Amino acid sequence: MTDMKKATPTAAGRWWLSMLISFLLAYAVTFISVWQWVLAAGVMGGLFSATMIRGALFTAFGVALAWLLYVVVQDAWVLLDQVGDIILGGKGQGGLLAAAVVALGGVLGGLGGAVGSGLRQLAGGGFQKE
Amino acid sequence: MARWKIKKLLWVCGPLLLAAGLATGLSVPLDTSMPALGKLLFPGSGIWTVPDGYPDTESWNIGAVEEPVTVFRDDWGVPHIYGRRSEDIAFAMGYVQAQDRLFFMDLARRFARGQLAEVIGPGALADDVVSKTKLLEHYAQKTIDHLRTSADAADRDYYRYVQSYVKGVNFFVETHPNQLPLEFHLLDYTFRPWTDLDCMAIAYFMLEGGPWGYWDLDRLVAMDAFIKHFGPNEGTERFQELFGAPGEGRVLPGQVPVHPGYGRFDDAKAFGHARKAAGSDIRTIVALADGLKGLLTGIEAAARESRRLNDPGFTGSNSWVVHGRRTRSGHPLACSDSHEPWSLPNIYYETHAVNTAADHNFYGYYVAGGAATPVDGHNRHITWGMTVCHWDQIDWYYYDTAGQGNYLYKGRAVPFEAPITVTIPVRGRDPVTHTIQRTVHGPVFSGLDKALPKAFRPLPEPFSHKIIAARWLSHKVVDLGPALLGMSRARNLDEFSAAMRGFEAPPNHVTYADAQGNIAAWSMGGFPVRDDRNLPAWHLGNGAMPYNGSAGEGEWVDMVTMDDLPSSLNPDQGFLVGANQMAAGPDYLKRHVGQFRHREGYRARRLNDLLAEKNLTVDDMARIHSDVTSLRAEDFTPHLLAAMAGMAMNPPEQAAYDLLSRWDFTMDKDLSAPSIFWTWIEFMAENTFGDQWKAMGLGDRLLPQHPILEKLIRTDPASVWFDDLTTPDVTEDAGNIMKTSIRQAVAALSDYFKTDDPSQWRWGRVHQLEFFHMTGELDALNYGPVPYSGASNTITAPHNKLLVDGKLAPAAARRGAHHRMIVDFGNPENSRSVLPGGVSGLSTLGAPFDQFDLFVNGEYHSEYFTADTPEKFLEQCRSVTSRIDFSPTGG
Predict the structure, then answer these.
(1) Are strands B343-344 and B69-73 parallel, antiparallel or unpaired?
(2) Whole-number Å distance between alpha carbons of B18 and B438
(3) Which residues of B touch A82 (CB under 8 A)?
(4) Which of left, alpha, beta for B96 (phi over 0: left; psi -120 to 50: alpha)?
(5) pLDDT, block means (10 residues), chain B with 891 residues
(6) What is the rounded CA–CA span in Å between residue B872 and residue B72?
(7) Residues B646 and B735: beta-carbon distance below 8 Å
(8) d(Cα A63, Cα B43) in Å, to the nearest integer?
(9) What angle do CA B776, B206, B89 make, to 5 degrees?
């Protein structure tokens, strides 16, 4: 409880940084056509979180937000519907497909974020109770 | 290490392993022909790079053009190209075709060159083996070599033109490296640079589409079945009763030839001629038939050949020209609508190309990838359209082997020609090496099992020692490209006919009109004269059946070329019609007119009826393009009504009778009579021939055409064909079968529509059109199905079948017009076109560029043809959707 109290101001001060870094890096990764780098975006974002859970949550949110923004900016709903029909079967599945893509981005970002914050703790020597 | 660190490390390893597992899972292809989901779906790659429209403007400064070229896209996305050199225009055409049709072009070249398995996998290997064996790629390369070194200025001119086109395609690809169409991402491969060989291979692929076939083999197998079933003499007689005798000039009833100057056929003499078969001949035919069945079974392993074999010979193209004597303007009108299996993207590509320095203003249709060579179209002076004609340009030969590496030819053992060895890449597998043997006539098809033992079968005994090879007219250098380019630039009849001399293949009726008031037609393509002396008595001759190559049968001793092919110029009737019917009447070279494969002639008859009017206008032409009156229905319905009048009818049958009695024979999607008639005619054909075909062990191939059935009903109602073999105690006649068939039809329709009220059996509910994506797999990219008027024998000619195994199970019509064009020499601005699917092959573009609504509603779009300068185009065009400027380097 004492540790948590101590950690709170620090963690609270960094959650937006975790999210911002992962958001910016995840969006930047969309320009290099190698999606696996989104894990690195998550890891980098996670480095700014004091706990693995927070790292996972905030970077998941950051990456998902970046991909959601990408999807909205691309405005490719005709294409998404066609691909949704091909992969999932049935008309009008573009929204579901987009949601699945964004969710998967979140999962990947979150896993990267958990790893990043864990590495931060290993490197920094601190151990934040979960 | 401190315990907490170990504990933490383990905590970190969890998400790390999960992330690694998920990343790996999303990076692994789903199967050999599908990409990994991550690569396909995740932002920054895959589907997100698919282009979804045209850039408003593009400007390129390049060395590939010598003069400026400007491309505008109109409100339908149709490119209008303005340049001062034909090579520069070809470059721009390559660029815009790549922009619109990159996937189509790539798949087309792979079909042509036998490279499908490289991207699709082992499932396409049989198709590749057959394509390679047809030597399309081989002779495409020979043609390129010929063009490159030819002394003929037209050839060299065309070669430069092709090279510029190729540069245009590759320039687009190089400058848009991450903008591949969706299909590339779904199939997970990339585009390989375009070559002149790709262009020419596609041209050969188009050449092969109509004339290549296995009818000769099918006919022999069918005649063998007839002989076994009926005995030698009656079998031969019955076969010829249904399929005629080409050497005797007997053709299908109801034929109105393209060219009116060669006499009219007498329907009373149509078919029915018999020749006798001798005993020794029968032994030969039986042995041959068993072997050929084995070959055909093997060929069916290739999906494209299977479709060709089992859905044979559908053609529906129309083209016609009307003389000024019959038009309101006093100037000629010309129309064309080519028919192919409907596919997306459309096989044709629509373009307006203007060479402002040479006064060439051409609007026409091209095959994307085919080197900017038009298939039909018009300029200010002339126009032409084409429909397939049925000169037989392919023969099959069989030989005895004569020891290793030899075969018996004219009684002597001779070695095979130099073999051609090809390597076929296969996705996910080792490449396959295939050696193509060749006889003096052409490539050998009987050894395909050696290249692909799991797909093809060796020939069965006692035929396993035979060699089977094909001789095709286009197994040589073909100068079609220079001919078509020359035709598109012609300014009068003389220039047009001079350019057309190189048009040896594929066989087509070419209809022509010009601004000077002429109309003309030629049945082009040419055909060989065979040495039919010393044939066995059963052989129909004239290339209709396989020849004994070892005995020297069926050698090509002469060619019938343009000067001897039937033609017409300004006939008294004031119009000319090409609709896949017979080329010429009985006065033309009799032994050659009785080709087997001409179409039933309903469309040609209907067009002849409609064009006999006067004061015809462009609106009349549009009405005729969409005409859905069925002469098949008009021929058969009186027989059906007469039979029904004599039967005790239940209420739905009586209601069906009433509907048919009042029907005007239009296959309108909102009427019910067409459903009744079409279901009945399919039952009628099945009930007449199906039992006999089954008894003879024949499949659905080579079923008699409908005019024969109608003639049998009219002239021989007690024919053996009407007797139902499943009721040995009763001998049925035509009337019995008509009654049985209408009862079955009414029952099937009641069952399908879930109502006994025939007024609810709308044709549009069982007759719908659908454009399928060219892969045949990506249904999400299809258009349709939508209710559609017409039938395969009407001028609109959509093609579908209602019955499957005696049940009503209508499939969508998958074949019909691929484009429609009306040319008005009285007012060129009034010329109009429609291209269902539109010029863009990008699935993301959709309406309004796809022109589907126009097509389905029988409408057209403006061509802006009179806009022969960029300035005029900008004045006339309602909405310029894109502009591309190409300038020479330093210009």
Answers:
(1) unpaired
(2) 59
(3) 182, 780-781, 843-844
(4) alpha
(5) 75 87 86 80 88 91 95 96 97 97 95 94 92 96 95 92 97 93 91 96 90 90 90 86 70 88 78 54 78 87 87 78 97 94 89 95 95 92 93 93 91 94 93 94 89 76 84 92 94 96 89 98 91 86 91 93 93 96 83 64 95 96 97 98 95 97 97 98 96 89 89 94 94 97 97 96 95 86 92 90 89 89 95 94 81 93 95 94 92 56
(6) 12
(7) yes
(8) 11
(9) 105
Report, in angstroms and rounded to the nearest whole number, the Rg of chain B calculated over CA atoms: 29
Query: Within an 8 Å CB–CB cutoff, is residue B279 touching chain A?
Result: no
CA atoms of B512 and B489, how far apart (whole Å): 14
What is the tens place of the pLDDT at every residue in B469-505? 999 999 999 888 999 999 999 999 999 999 999 888 8
Predicted model pTM: 0.92
User: How many whole angstroms separate alpha carbon B221 and alpha carbon B292?
Assistant: 7
Return the number of other C-beta atoms located less than 10 Å from residue B428's C-beta: 11
Contacts 24+ apart (CB under 8 A), B742-746: B742/B640, B742/B643, B742/B644, B742/B653, B742/B656, B742/B676, B742/B680, B742/B683, B743/B653, B744/B683, B744/B687, B744/B806, B745/B656, B745/B676, B745/B679, B745/B680, B745/B683, B746/B650, B746/B652, B746/B653, B746/B656, B746/B676
- Chain A residues within 8 A of B780 when measuring between CB atoms: 81-83, 85-86
Nearest chain B alpha carbon to A90? B780
H or E element: which one contains A91?
Answer: none
In this structure, which amino acid lies at residue B78? Answer: V
Q: Which of B3, B41, B344 to mutate to test the interface with A (most CBs of A within 10 A)?
A: B41
Both tokens of residue B811? 């499939």
The answer to whether A14 and A81 are in contact (CB under 8 A) is no
Give residue-wise pLDDT tens across range A37-80: 999 999 999 999 888 899 999 999 999 999 999 999 988 888 89
Number of CB atoms found within 10 A of residue B129's CB: 25
* Residue B790 falls in which region: left (phi positive, over 0), alpha (psi -120 to 50) or beta: left
Strands B57-62 and B882-888: parallel
Within 8 A by CB and 6+ apart from B478, the residues are B139, B143, B203, B204, B207, B504, B505
Query: Which residues in B668-696 are b (16+ Cβ under 10 Å) and which e?
Result: bbebbbbbbbbbbbbbbbbbbbbbbbeeb
B385 touches B376 (CB < 8 A): yes
Q: Do A119 and B846 touch (CB under 8 A)?
A: no
**Is residue B412 within a helix (H) or strand (E), and if so which, with residue range?**
strand B412-415
Which of A61, A57, A66 lies closest to A35, judged by CA? A66
Contact call for residues B170 and B95 (beta carbons, < 8 A): no
Task: Write out the DSSP string of B267-298.
Answer: GGGSS-------HHHHHHHHHHHHHHHHHHHH
Does residue B673 contact residue B660 with C-beta atoms inside 8 Å?
A: yes
Backbone angles phi, psi at B450, to 5 degrees: -75, -35
What is the separation of C-alpha B324 from the centre of its chain, rounded to a whole number of angstroms?
32
